[in-house]
Description:
Elements: H1 25-36, E1 46-52, E2 71-78, E3 83-90, E4 95-102
Amino acid sequence: MWAFARRPGGPDGTTEVHPLDPLSADELRRAVSILRADPRIAETARFADVYHDEPAKATLIGPRAADIDRRVCFRLVTGPELACTEALVSLTSDQVLAVTEGAGGCVRRCSSERVG
């Protein structure tokens, strides 16, 4: 049996959340709140993309599988020049892990590899 983080109202009606489960509406609202509180994010930023930064499948095996960080990746359009900002938010630690400013337009995808 999987031993993962718990939240009320998981996708299948239980309280268990598998790391590959889709983000809930509450998780998305929380991630937006965490992001908006970060001073590196402009108040005028517009959301272009939001998605679950899924862990690598290999990390789902082993004793540390229950400690997997649930992350949300945002791609934002900022400023009159329509620059792109990417941000990676941890729902586990309630913090913005990385903010990357893209020069000349949006980069393709957030990558947790850049975070370390």
